[in-house]
Amino acid sequence: MTGHPTTIDWDATADSFDQEPDHGLLDPAVRDAWAARMRTWLPQDRAVEVLDLGCGTGSLSLLAAEQGHRVTGVDRSPRMVDLARIKLADADAEVLVGDAFQPPVGERKFDVVMARHVLWLLPDTAAALRHWCSLLKPGGRLLLVEGVWGDAGIPAGEVTESLAPLTSYVQYERLSADPTLWGRSVDDERYAVVARPALPARHAEVVDVHLILRRGDEALLARRAGTGYADGLLNGPSGHVEDGEDVVAAMIREAAEEIGIALTPDDLRVALVMQHRGPGGDPRTGWFFEAEYGAGGEPYNREPDKCSELAWHPLADLPTDMVAYCRAGLDAYRASERFVIHWHEDGDRIAYDAQGERRGVSLRVTGA
Fold it and tell me: Per-residue pLDDT tens for 290-302?
């Protein structure tokens, strides 16, 4: 790291910071230049919550507040905090005494976390950025203004490298070439970085469809064979929803592929929905549809390489050699339930176990 100090006399710098055009923004042209930049960095379509870390005397906090945002400033120096509170007395803002590295904001989250000429002062850049990103709401942004001045400061490359594993978007903006921001020409490295943390991965599940084809009080079951999963066990005609399909289209396709019947949407009724986790697997959601025998034609085994038998079985006396997932769905269907969670732990059996279904249907919500 470049020039990261171990101690800073914060109170001794309060007055000088407020007098420098670079910090206090007392020069109207400098102030206007920073206000214009802030409008490009902060959301302008709505008022947001802004956390200004190492806010000093509140110059940037005031610009953010003047643009309609709610600002919380944090600074270690009580002297600077007093000056900032005076400056922000008429703004929608609060200023707290605290460490920028671990700001005293509790569980609060912000739309923007900004820091100007602060990161280079902290002993652990990566840790500070990780914590600051954790203070952002989903879709929030991190705004950093930093630079390198002689032997002090932090290079942009170090900042962007630290942000890389934390963010999905980083915008670098060189500020050295704009003298209106500093009240004079500068030849050192000064820059802004706007970063958006990567959003947590959204939960995704495979979607299954299952057919309860009824012939009076019986249902058609197929015995799996040659698939590598649950072979020898019975389940209903079923399969996965493919990209671009809705669940009804998937059920119609699977019925045609497996048992050769040509169902229409009018032939199908939603029986129940089940969230399921198989032993050692990921959760998936299954849609169970019912249809009456005769709809779409006479069923037959169209996939003998995957199915060794098709047979009708009484719903009131289902066989035990079934896939536990399917058996739980049919049991719930007979009980007129509409939503079921069927959750296995690693090491549980794939097959239905009449004595050990303690982890079978773990939650049932009965429909109207």
Answer: 999 999 999 999 9
